[in-house]
Here is the input.
Amino acid sequence: MTELSPNAAPANPPAAATSTPCLRTAWFCALACLLLALVAIPWIDRPVVDFAHAHTQGTRWIQHIAELPAPLFVAAWPTFLIVGAVLFFRRKLPSWAVTLWLAAGAVGVGSLAKQALKFVFGRTWPATWIHENPSYLRDGVFEFRFFGGGSAAFASFPSGHLTVMLAFTTVLALRHQVLRVPCAIAIALTAFGQLAAAYHWTSDALAGAALGIAVGSLFVMGWQHRQASRHA
Here is the structure.
């Protein structure tokens, strides 16, 4: 049975409709991540980076894990446009295809949103790795330059990798309960890699997670509202 079939049974699997408690839990998690990010800035960020610099930074397999969400940046918009075109012309898609479409859209929007926030906050990175950027590990710099960065050298906050990973997995986890454990593992690996490689501050990762959860939840809510309107 396809998601948009006029004769679709209302008691379709969890992918058909995400319960309100699940959506509320997602929003609660986003808020919790945001509050934890505020706590992490003064008390957790520097100790974690100091530990990573001493023990794990530069480890090749950790760097590979940190880049786990990289394909999402590239595939998001093409997938969203292609599947969206199929949806437009066919007027119906199976649940998995709708999930893929929503997840790709969430990743694309999340990517744009995180880029805008990076410009707003202009935060310095933990390490020096692009355009001789001033950093904590090389120069002892730990600051935000609100609207003053304007380049990738001042774009640590929020983490784009955590944003897209959470945007993607939030859609999957809300629509398909069976995918929640794999999604949790992917999130944990990405967060570990980003922090252990000293690519991001802990608060960057938490803020990126909050943004990704919020965007992913909005896409799921928007789809459900559209479906409810069609069947009203």
Observations:
- Residues 1-16 have pLDDT under 50 and may be disordered.
- Residues 19-230 form one domain.
